[in-house]
Write a structure and sequence with these properties.
The protein is an all-alpha fold. It has 10 helices and 2 strands; from the N terminus they run H-H-H-H-H-H-H-E-E-H-H-H. A two-stranded antiparallel ribbon has the order 1-2. Helix 3 crosses helix 9 and helix 9 packs across helix 10. The radius of gyration is 19 Å and the shape is globular.
């Protein structure tokens, strides 16, 4: 009887090594080059083709120094206040989310900014375990090969703020008619407040829930202080 599994195992090993090499190369390339697209943008485009709906993707790269410090602080305050200190996974926040769910509370996300950057840049939307596994791998690569500033810079340039509106520059002009370097603290807080569900919330015309979250984010920004960004 032929040992059919031996060549199959060999091909699996080659595929795994090829994936590792390709993923490391991609992360290294995007460490230095501006990022003008993401798999989530591609997913939105393909979805619009199948649905027959028109979708105009808006996104423009802005480097770190041209991104509002208010926006940097707002996103950290809203989504990942331990961002400078963890290595891609916030186990404290994850434990709290699990405890809240076990105690009957609503389930909430505990993804870090690094995890969200990995998902937005390289992967697809959804909550399946296969994607979670790839997300963990790319999260480790980003933390090892990129500085924190680069992770936040790329995240702010590719995250979705409204249907077809990606990145801080496009979002700032879409909602407030200003560039990404001109956002006030209140405008930045409102942009950060839509991120849990950007296609159903508005930063320029927030509902009560979004407005309350924006106010909470601005208080957190004040608590953290502008000097917090120096820790990145």
């Amino acid at each position: 009887m032929t040992d059919w599994w031996r060549p199959a195992l060999g091909w699996l090993v080659r595929l795994a090594l090829g994936f590792v090499a390709l993923s490391v190369l991609l992360v290294l390339v995007f460490r230095f080059l501006p990022v003008f697209g993401s798999t989530v943008m591609l997913e939105r485009e393909v979805g619009s083709w199948f649905s027959g709906e028109s979708l105009d993707i808006q996104q423009r790269w802005r480097p770190w120094d041209e991104l509002s410090d208010n926006a940097k602080l707002a996103v950290i305050a809203a989504e990942d206040q331990r961002f400078p200190d963890h290595y891609g996974f916030d186990f404290t926040e994850l434990r709290r989310a699990i405890e809240q769910g076990m105690n009957g509370g609503s389930l909430r996300g505990a993804s870090t900014i690094t995890q969200q950057t990995a998902k937005n840049l390289f992967l697809w939307t959804g909550r399946d375990w296969v994607r979670k596994g790839f997300e963990a791998w790319f999260t480790v690569l980003l933390e090892v090969l990129w500085p924190k500033e680069r992770i936040l810079e790329v995240y702010l340039n590719i995250v979705e703020f409204d249907s077809g509106v990606f990145g801080l520059e496009a979002a700032s002009r879409h909602y407030f008619g200003v560039g990404a370097d001109q956002l006030s603290a209140s405008q930045a807080a409102r942009l950060a407040a839509v991120l849990p569900n950007p296609r159903e919330r508005s930063a320029s015309n927030p509902g009560p829930r979004t407005a309350n979250r924006a106010a909470w984010i601005q208080r957190q920004m004040n608590n953290l202080g502008r000097g917090y960004l120096e820790r990145l």
